[in-house]
Design a protein that fits this description.
Layout (H helix, E strand, L loop, with lengths): L8 H32 L6 H19 L3 H22 L9 H23 L15 E3 L4 E3 H23 L1 H11 L1 H6 L4 H23 L13 H12 L4 H21 L7 H12 L10
């Protein structure tokens, strides 16, 4: 059928696979945003800058301390998460009782500061980060050559997304988190340290951004602007899935990555805006998002 349209199946399948890889990044990043908004009601516009920070931390660990990719995959999210905890305790905790707009403006300012600091020190040219030797090479799938590292990105993203969803939706800790969001006074009366849970939740949300940054470092050049454009797309993904919906963020991230891949085949000129067109349609038809709940 596609050959009748003048589109070789190899091109279509190749773009779908590339879309799945992009969707893996969308899913992890939008998951972190959904966790922070859904549990803390903070619109974290600094998420893209923290994603960039994760990539830079991995690069610094390798070049300054000789710590390779696998340890960086653990240490960089912990470092970025720790930085997020400091931000939450010193700045963001003062905004919880205010309108969401204050959190958005503050985190937007933080993003500009973080990006500016890295830009002034490292410049705007990309810094290379080598693919680990264990993931070098690839497989010939017939319709395209699939690098092992990109396959790893899809697997690692899916594992982290499923693990986060299971923790929040199916465990006692997740139940405590959701209850603390809806009625912190009642939860605190049962002896649960609500401020500690909020702090760790924000740290975990930004650690997901740091994890995505480490995954992205060998694929994209590590540069201070790498999160600036991506965060706009990720916000659109979260809005389409439903603000605060964990499952919505994950599924929408993967699906929109595939849709973007299809758009590159059938309408290349519109591939850059297809996600925003879908967002506009969803907001008109279902303002709370596909998986969100109406207030």
């Amino acid at each position: 059928m596609f050959e009748l349209l003048g589109i070789p199946p190899q091109v279509l399948l190749g773009q779908l696979l590339l879309g799945l890889i992009n969707g893996s990044f969308y899913a992890v990043l939008s998951l972190g945003l959904a966790v922070i908004f859904g549990l803390l009601n903070i619109i974290n516009f600094a998420h893209g800058a923290l994603y960039m920070m994760g990539a830079f931390v991995a690069w610094m660990l390798l070049n300054y301390f000789g710590i390779g990719y696998w340890w960086a995959l653990i240490l960089a999210p912990v470092i970025v998460g720790g930085f997020g905890i400091v931000l939450e305790r010193t700045i963001l905790s003062r905004l919880y009782k205010l309108d969401h707009l204050y959190g958005l403006l503050l985190t937007f300012g933080l993003a500009l500061i973080i990006q500016g600091l890295f830009r002034n020190y490292y410049g705007i040219s990309g810094l290379p980060y080598q693919i680990p030797a264990e993931l070098a090479g690839g497989y010939n799938l017939g319709f395209m050559y699939l690098p092992n590292y990109r396959a790893w990105v899809v697997i690692a993203s899916a594992a982290v997304c499923f693990g986060a969803w299971f923790l929040i939706e199916k465990t006692r800790l997740g139940a405590y988190l959701r209850a603390a969001t809806e009625n912190p006074t009642l939860v605190g009366a049962f002896g649960i340290n609500v401020p500690l849970m909020v702090m760790l939740t924000y740290g975990a949300g930004v650690a997901l951004a740091g994890f995505a940054g480490v995954l992205a470092a060998p694929i994209y050049s590590v540069n201070p602007n790498m999160g600036a454009d991506l965060i706009i797309v990720v916000f659109a993904v979260v809005v389409i899935g439903g603000m605060g919906s964990i499952l919505g963020a994950i599924l929408t991230g993967y699906v929109l990555g595939l849709v973007e891949g299809l758009a590159r085949v059938f309408f290349p000129e519109g591939s850059a805006v297809v996600i925003f067109v879908i967002m506009a349609i969803v907001l008109l038809v279902k303002p709370e998002g596909l998986f969100g709940r109406a207030n």
